[in-house]
Structure formats: C-alpha cells, structure tokens
Amino acid sequence: MAEGGIPQPPGWPILGNLFEINPSQAIKSLFRLRDNYGPICKLVIVGITRISVTNHELFDELCDEHRFVKSVSGPVGQMRNGANDGLVTAHPNEENWGVAHRTLLPAFGELHVQDMFDEMYDIASQLILKWARQGSEKPINVIEDATRFTLDSIALSAMGARFNSFYSEDTHPFVTHMLRFLGESNLRANRPAFATKFMWSRERQYWDDIKYLRTFSKQLLRERRQNPTERTDILNAMVNGRDPKTGEKMNEESIIDNMITFLVAGHETTAGAIGFLFYHLLKDPEVWRQVQEEVDQVIGNRRITVEDLSKLRYINSCARETLRLYPTAPVIFFKPIDRVHPTVIGQGRYTIMPRQSVMAVLPAIHKDPEVWGDDVDDFRPDRMSDGKFESLPKNAWKPFGNGSRSCIGRAFAWNEIILITALAAQSFNLKFKDENYELEIDNIVTLRPKNFFMHAVPRPHLD
Ligand code: HEM
Predict the structure, then answer these.
(1) What is the C-alpha separation between 103 and 152, in angstroms, rounded?
(2) Cβ-based burial of 12 (10 A; exposed 0-12, middle 13-18, buried ≥19)
(3) CA-nearest residue, atom 8 of ligand 1
(4) Does ligand 1 come within 6 angstroms of the Cβ of 100?
C-alpha cells in the first residue's frame, strides 16, 4: 500500500510506472490496473504522479464541485497548445472561459439547437443520399461517414461554413490536421516531456498542425466579419454577443480558440458515438427491428422534423446505453479545491494531495457492477428507458462530463445522433460487411470503432 492509502504498482528507477500505460491503448491499461489494484490507483511516471479512479463511489465524490474542480491535464492539457483558454482547455475560473461560457450558453440551449435543425438535416440527407447512390454492394466505412456528417454539421450549423465532405473522396484537410493534433496531444500526455523535446520532426508537424487549425479558423472569422449575416449561429453569438454578467465581448483570440474548440470537440466524440450505436444496431437484430418499428410508427415515410426526435424514446434509450458502454470522451480530470490541505475521499481511506490531478476513467465507472449489475458489458437499451434512466444513482451516467464544466454541445450532439439513426432506419436495412466482425476500439483521445464496415440496402418503400 502506497502513501495516501492509494495502491501503486512497483516501478523502475527514474522511469517509475512508465510501462504500465500503453499510450495507444490507454483505456485498456487503466482497466488492467483496476483489475490488479482496485478502484483507485497511483502511478508515478518520471516523477509525475497520476491517480486514476474507476468506480462510481469515488467518482461521485469527485463530482462534488464544493471539493473538486476540473483539472486541465492529460491530453486536454496538451490540447491547450492549440486552443489556449478555449472552453474545453481553460483552467477553472479563467476569465475568458467565464465570458465565453456565459455568452454562449443560450446559443447552445435547446431552442437555438432546434433552430439549427434544418442545416443539420441538410447534411444528414447528404449522407443518406450518398449511401443510396453508391448501392448496397459497396461497403461503407461507418466512422468515416459519421465523421463527415458531424464535422460538416457543426461547421455549417455553428459557423455557416460548408466543408462539403460528402462531395469529395478525400478527407477535408482540417480533419487530417486535427486528428494528427489530437493523436500527438495524446502521445505527448503519455510520454515524459524530455522525450518529446528530442522528437524534432514530430514536434515540427505538431506545431504546423496547430498553425493550420488557427489559420483556418481565423480565415472563417475574417469571412464572417467581411460578410455579416443575420444568422442565429454560434459564430454570430461570439462576434456580436455580450457576456450577460460583465457586458464584455469575446476578444479576437478567444473567438479563434473557441472556433477550434467547437470544430474539434464538436465532431469526433459524436461521430464515435454514432459508430458504436450503429455497431450495436447491426449486432442485435431485435434492437434494430425495434428501432425501425419505432421510426415507422412515429414518422413513417415523411420528412423527419425536430419535434419527432424527442418522440423516438427507444432510439433515445439506445443512444444512452451506447454512451454508457463507450463514453467517447473517456477520461476527465479533477483536482481538489483545497490547495493547502490534503483532501480525503473513500470514507477516510484515500488522501489526495493539494494540486494533485485525479483521472476519472468513465468507461470503467460506467461499468461498475454495484450500479449496473453483473451484465455490465451487455448492450441493453431497456436499462436506459424513461423512468429507469431518471432513477439511476447520481453521477452514475456521465458521458457529458460534470457540473459547470460539462458539455455545452450536449443537446446538439443528441439531435445529431437521434436524427442520423432515425434517417438510416427509415431508409435502409443495414448489415455488416463482415458478419464475423469483432469490435475493435481506436483510442486516440476519443473512442471510435475501428475497421467497421457495413452495407446499406434501401428499404422497399424507397425503391
Ligand atoms: C465538454 C463529452 C459533443 C463541445 C465536454 C466534456 C465531456 C464531453 C466529457 C467535459 C470535458 C472535461 O471535463 O474535460 C461529449 C460527448 C459528445 C460531445 C460524449 C458527443 C456524444 C459535443 C459537441 C460540442 C461539444 C457536439 C460542440 C458543439 C464541448 C465544449 C466543452 C465540452 C465546448 C467544454 C465545456 C466547458 O468546459 O465549458 N464534452 N461532448 N461537445 N464539450 Fe462536449
């Protein structure tokens, strides 16, 4: 038992526990540590201490905003290199965070998100059209198309920018630069800083990628300033809105930081969620049958409206269960508010030192058998049905993060997930390209299914 009551695996001189985490399979490594050392574990890697929490009881304590705040650590800490004090990467109480948060909260609210529905629908129908045109013989790379959908959707709905990803075979350069930036941020977070310093060509690429993301966003902003519109989108909220508390406007750098933030945070996670949901719809024919039956009953053959989305209760349960099993932003970091005295959790058992970061491992917390029972690994939408969902223990299901630092784009993401599922069910019968496909998980910063291909066969009523 190590200092503070927190178990720590034996380590190597100087490097400490460096080899306990495989950077390309970090979540798997954290599950292994949980199995070997229990729900809280300490690693010391080249002198830097990391604590991971993997059960609901301890996580519930971390979510108490009187005792803990967000810590900008791990991959998110590295992403600050590109997005500075944008919403995701801001330290607690940074001034620009407060101004941006208060200015943008209404713009991301349920009502405004409903206003964005027509443009979201526009992009979603491009995806459906693509699948219909290419025919049922050609395999669909689900995650690539989901990424095209979510990227084009956030760029158009939030900023009036058309990336036109469905009109080109190649991925938009923004996505290439962004994925490399995210991947390298993850690797940097998992290797000692001195090692990074010697990786000259990777470093050059990393900073070039950041430069591209910033230049691209700056250009979008310039175009908007040169061509003002009456649109009620996020970019206009940033350019014209004022903080209701201070009356301040967001400054130029903060707008660019947040444009990058929305384009980055606003599509990877949702695309991953769509990918995992589709995987389970294909995997379980009975679930797929119920999804199609619900769409046929609630909507039939007509155009889907924004009001329909909340009526699709079974699909909503499937989406909740998907994000339980695969919270696509899988780790969030906390640190104690008390910067002088140690903070004790776990009924006096574990001591967290001031300024110490604690990593909450959501995929493990979402599979705590104390909350979910013995079948934690099974995809069971019925456990997320209305009524049961609301009765879950506090903080048992947290794919969108915690408290004041939780996801501002939740309503937007939810509409995307439900809409694309409903449209696919209305239009196609889906089947795996390879019936023996075993789910593989890509874990760069977010979680995504890997090598997942399917066929979409148009439903008879569309012939
Ligand atoms: C924050 C998850 C979609 C924008 C977060 C956090 C999580 C999360 C866990 C907290 C991060 C932390 O504590 O470090 C997700 C998931 C999504 C999703 C699972 C999709 C299924 C979106 C979308 C947008 C967005 C579509 C933008 C339109 C943000 C922003 C924050 C955030 C700006 C930072 C909020 C703040 O700290 O003020 N998200 N997100 N997210 N998300 Fe999302």
Answers:
(1) 24
(2) exposed
(3) 400
(4) no
Does ligand 1 come within 6 angstroms of the Cβ of 261?
yes
**d(Cα 455, Cα 138) in Å, to the nearest integer?**
7
- By alpha-carbon position, which residue is closest to atom 37 of ligand 1? 405
- The predicted complex's ipTM stands at 0.99
Amino acid at 386: D
Q: What's the rounded Cα separation, in Å, for the pair 288 and 431?
A: 10
Longest dimension (CA), the chain: 69
Helices of type H across 105-172? 110-115, 117-134, 142-159
Report the DSSP pairing between strands 48-53 and 358-361.
parallel
Query: Buried (b) or exposed (e) across 145-168, using 16+ Cβ within 10 A?
Result: bbbbbbbbbbbbbbbbbebebeee
Pair 167, 463: CB distance under 8 Å = no
460's CB contacts (< 8 A; 6+ apart) are none
The ligand 1 atom at the shortest distance from the C-alpha of residue 262 is 27
Verify whether residue 407 is a known catalytic residue.
yes
Asked whether 259 lines ligand 1 (CB < 6 A), one says: no
Where is the binding site, in residues?
A: 407
Q: Give me the tens of pLDDT residue by residue for the chain, a chain 463 residues long.
A: 456 899 999 988 888 888 888 877 889 999 999 999 999 999 988 888 889 999 999 999 999 999 999 999 888 999 999 999 999 999 998 999 999 999 999 999 877 888 899 999 999 999 999 999 999 999 999 999 999 999 999 999 888 888 889 987 777 888 789 889 988 998 898 777 888 888 899 999 999 999 999 999 999 999 999 999 988 889 999 999 999 999 999 999 999 999 999 988 988 999 999 999 999 999 999 999 999 999 999 999 999 999 999 999 999 999 999 999 999 999 999 999 999 999 999 999 999 999 899 999 999 999 999 999 999 999 999 999 999 999 999 999 999 999 999 999 999 999 999 999 999 999 999 999 999 999 999 887 789 999 999 999 999 874 4
Write out the two tokens for 268. Answer: 């990877």
Task: Report the C-alpha gap between 294 and 139 in whole angstroms.
Answer: 26
Out of 166, 389, 400, 453, the active site residue is: 400
Residues listed for the chain: 463
Q: Whose CA is nearest to atom 11 of ligand 1?
A: 401
SS3 sequence of 123-139:
HHHHHHHHHHHHCCCCC
Asked if 318 is an active-site residue, the reply is no
Nearest residue to 445 via CA among 180, 266, 183, 189: 183
Q: Is the pTM of this model over 0.90?
A: yes
